[in-house]
Design goal:
Helices cover about 35% and strands about 20% of the residues. With about 450 residues, the protein is an alpha/beta fold. Strands 1, 2, 3, 4, 5, 14, 15 and 16 form an eight-stranded mixed beta sheet that branches. It has a five-stranded parallel beta sheet with strand order 9-10-11-12-13. A hairpin with a 2-residue loop joins strand 15 and strand 16. It binds (4S)-2,6-dioxohexahydropyrimidine-4-carboxylic acid (DOR). (4S)-2,6-dioxohexahydropyrimidine-4-carboxylic acid binds next to loops.
Length: about 450
């Protein structure tokens, strides 16, 4: 593959921002310059200064997603059309600026063996758009009765990089502890979705409380339990889609006490509240697990991202067909809006710095996955990059999504920041259609 020169950009990663240029060779970053290399000529040159006249564009590490649902295998629905496939999801990820994605095991059948994970990964690798790391479930068939193949994996492998029982959690303490001990042996984080709170939440449900009430009891109780059992087993607990102020406080205390803990927030809990859920329909288009919460919760999640209690942003991309969504299937398609939603809510109106946003969306999730070769712009790192126009203002239109899941809470909303191009291992895998210097250089 020819070396590629990307010149005249603002280079952004977790370490800061500076004007500069990058050479990618053999899929990796070979050199960086402050400014633009004089007289350098490459068959493949992308000039940030001329992509959009008058705009200084940002070149940053491709995003890394710890939590997406690809619905493959088994995305077939009542309408006999898949809600998503590995191909449509990978296209959506590339369009959203993602280079690495973990997809959850709640497929049909669930991903509970290395062979199933390897098959999905191979089908994604063949597309060459992203690196996919399927998460392996903790129990066989995600049925909560016996351990999945995690008990038989002998040494840590290239994948999985994360274990998770997705929204089901493992309700039996003894079995959960056994799974956590295997995770510790394999040195893998366990992503706990904390959507199943056991007795306390059940009691609130039985008492006829509204979903927004019992689901809060559920998330808080399940977060407390995951942190406690994780500590007991000496395992790495990763708390998924934190949405309540109490859960954020529990994670903060666990980290202060030296716990092996990481955590993520989803863009919709960063940007939206229960008001949006009501407008969209709490039982249909506004439904998500965990639900959109109060303004105070939203502010607590943002504060926790700022002070390091939460380590990463993860999309929880959850595509559904229109029919399933109308009938109450929880979740939103998020891969193609997450960067803009986070830039808008956290940077433009929230006071977060761009380097911290890059840390949350690239470097930190890469570290959680143990992928030390990506998430930063530095020589030797992977040539997984994306070009963003942080000044662009655009209106979300789900019809334009690559994802087959067209459910978004941001339909017709204005957001700031647009991904213009995604480069994976030194190859352009996504670009908007209006690049002006296309013929001149590539
Ligand atoms: O709303 C959600 N939907 N949250 C999750 O964590 C799972 C997801 C799904 O699989 O649809």
């Amino acid at each position: 593959m020819n070396p590629m020169l990307l010149r005249n950009f603002t280079l952004l990663d977790e370490t800061g921002m500076r004007g500069g240029s990058v050479i990618i060779e053999d899929g990796c970053i070979r050199e960086l310059w402050n400014g633009c290399p004089e007289g350098a000529s490459f068959p493949c040159t992308i000039d940030g200064g001329s992509l959009i006249p008058g705009r200084v564009l940002t070149l940053m590490p491709a995003l890394v997603d710890l939590h997406a649902h690809f619905r493959d295998p088994g995305g077939q629905t009542a309408e006999a059309l898949p809600a998503e496939t590995v191909e449509s999801a990978a296209l959506a990820a590339a369009a959203g600026g993602y280079g690495t994605v973990v997809c959850m095991a709640n497929t049909k059948p669930p991903i509970d063996t290395l062979a199933a994970a390897a098959d999905l990964k191979a089908r994604s690798d063949a597309l060459g758009l992203i690196d996919l790391y399927p998460a392996l479930s903790l129990t066989r068939g995600m049925a909560g009765r016996e351990l999945s193949e995690i008990a038989r994996i002998e040494t840590p492998l290239d994948f999985p990089r994360l274990l998770s029982e997705d929204g089901k959690d493992v309700l039996d303490d003894g079995l959960f502890l056994a799974a956590l001990r295997e995770a510790r042996r394999l040195k893998l984080p366990v992503s706990c979705h904390c959507d199943a709170g056991g007795g306390q939440a059940e009691a609130a449900k039985q008492a006829g409380e509204a979903r927004r009430v019992w689901s809060r009891v559920e998330e808080n109780a399940a977060t407390r339990r995951a942190l406690e059992l994780g500590r007991k087993a000496g395992a790495w607990i990763h708390i998924a889609h934190v949405s309540t102020q109490e859960a954020a406080a529990l994670i903060r205390s666990a980290k202060k006490a030296g716990g092996l803990v990481s955590a993520e927030a989803a863009p919709h809990h960063i940007a939206l509240t229960e008001d949006a859920a009501q407008e969209l329909g709490e039982a249909s288009y506004g439904r998500v697990n965990p639900p959109l919460r109060t303004g105070e919760d939203r502010r607590a999640v943002v504060q926790a991202l700022m002070d390091g209690t939460l380590d990463a942003v993860a999309t929880d991309h959850a595509p559904h067909t229109q029919k399933d969504k109308a009938a109450g299937a929880p979740g939103f398609s998020g891969l193609e809006t997450s960067f803009a939603v986070c830039l808008t809510a956290l940077v433009k109106t929230g006071g977060l710095s761009l380097p911290r946003l890059s840390a949350l969306m690239s470097a930190a999730p890469a570290r959680i996955l143990g992928l030390t070769d990506r998430g930063r712009i530095a020589p030797g790192y992977r040539g997984d990059l994306c070009v963003a126009d942080t000044e662009a203002v655009w209106t979300v239109q789900a019809a334009a999504f690559r994802s087959r899941g067209k459910n978004t809470p941001y339909q017709n909303r204005e957001v700031s920041g647009r991904i213009l191009m995604t480069i994976h291992r030194g190859r352009i895998v996504y670009e908007t259609e209006n690049r002006q210097n296309r013929n001149a250089h590539v």
